[in-house]
């Protein structure tokens, strides 16, 4: 234990600069986070430590302190109060510097440009913020994100239409994330076109896409093909394949296969 002679019990000074707590005031500390704790004019109380699995640290003079889940400012106040209540320092100025974030991270997986684990730098980090950290969806990524985590001790899963947050002003769907959440962006749904099409292949289904638009994406019919002789293969609910003669204004569904027949003339 530190000798009390090395501490200034009556120290009352102007607050020292707090480089980290001011840039991340709301970040909730979590297990694995590395922090540096300083008390102004008391260098003997400067330590670097890591938050344990149960959310606590051991600090000189006051022993175990539970910091897990507290924001930086709240953690500073809790240590300062303990030092003051214990009679060690009359008016302690405590500063916590966040050295490494490991406790509160979110995994972003699937069709994003930079998949990986990203820290929750503030307590109100939203889905759109985290997708931006991951570089957004790739060209083959879907407009829908699936968020999985735990809320109030129960498994949480929510499927969110990303574009509707902005296009339809569904701001409530831009949910606040929590440590341990996972975000998954699936491959965008596609349709297939072959036969007498200029560019046969698979293409992404855009919102509200019709058969006519799908045909245009395939370059339209060749000189031998006819837009009036289309055949659409669609998987039914029972797994069987239906053959449909579609209208040009019919919607295109995921995994539809459009065949462009030859013209009769």
TrEMBL record:
GO molecular function, one term: porin activity
GO cellular component terms, semicolon-separated: cell outer membrane; pore complex
Membrane topology: Multi-pass membrane protein
Domain Polysaccharide export protein N-terminal: 22-98
Single GO BP term: monoatomic ion transport
Annotated ranges, domain SLBB: 105-185
Main subcellular localisation: membrane
Keywords, alphabetical: Cell outer membrane, Ion transport, Lipoprotein, Membrane, Palmitate, Polysaccharide transport, Porin, Signal, Sugar transport, Transmembrane, Transmembrane beta strand, Transport
Subcellular compartments: Cell outer membrane
Gene3D superfamilies: Outer membrane lipoprotein wza domain like
Residues annotated as domain Soluble ligand binding: 190-244
InterPro entries listed in its UniProt record: Poly_export, Poly_export_N, Polysacc_export_EpsE, SLBB_dom, Soluble_ligand-bd
Family statement: Belongs to the BexD/CtrA/VexA family.
PANTHER family (UniProt xref): POLYSACCHARIDE EXPORT PROTEIN GFCE-RELATED
Protein's recorded name: Polysaccharide export protein EpsE
Species of the source: Rhodoferax fermentans
């Amino acid at each position: 234990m530190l000798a009390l002679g090395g501490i200034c019990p009556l120290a009352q000074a102007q607050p020292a600069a707090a480089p980290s707590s001011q840039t991340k005031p709301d970040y909730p500390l979590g297990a694995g986070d590395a922090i540096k704790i300083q008390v102004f004019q008391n260098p003997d109380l400067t330590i670097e430590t890591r938050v344990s699995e149960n959310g606590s640290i051991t600090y000189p003079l006051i022993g175990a302190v539970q910091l897990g889940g507290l924001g930086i400012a709240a953690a500073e106040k809790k240590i300062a109060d303990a030092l003051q209540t214990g009679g060690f320092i009359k008016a302690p100025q405590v500063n916590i510097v966040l050295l490494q974030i490991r406790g509160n991270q979110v995994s972003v997986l699937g069709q994003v440009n930079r998949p990986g684990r990203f820290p929750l730098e503030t307590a109100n980090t939203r889905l759109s913020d985290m997708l931006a950290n991951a570089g957004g969806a790739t060209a083959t990524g879907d407009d829908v994100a699936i968020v999985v985590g735990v809320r109030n001790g129960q498994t949480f899963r929510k499927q969110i239409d990303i574009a509707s947050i902005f296009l339809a002003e569904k701001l409530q769907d831009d949910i606040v994330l929590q440590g341990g959440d996972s975000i998954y962006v699936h491959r965008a749904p596609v349709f297939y076109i072959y036969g007498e099409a200029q560019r046969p292949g698979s293409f992404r289904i855009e919102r509200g896409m019709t058969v006519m638009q799908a045909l245009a994406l395939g370059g339209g019919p060749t000189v031998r093909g006819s837009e009036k002789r289309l055949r659409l293969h669609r998987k039914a609910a029972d797994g069987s394949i239906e053959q449909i003669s579609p209208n040009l204004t019919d919607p295109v569904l995921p995994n539809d296969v459009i065949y462009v027949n030859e013209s009769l003339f």
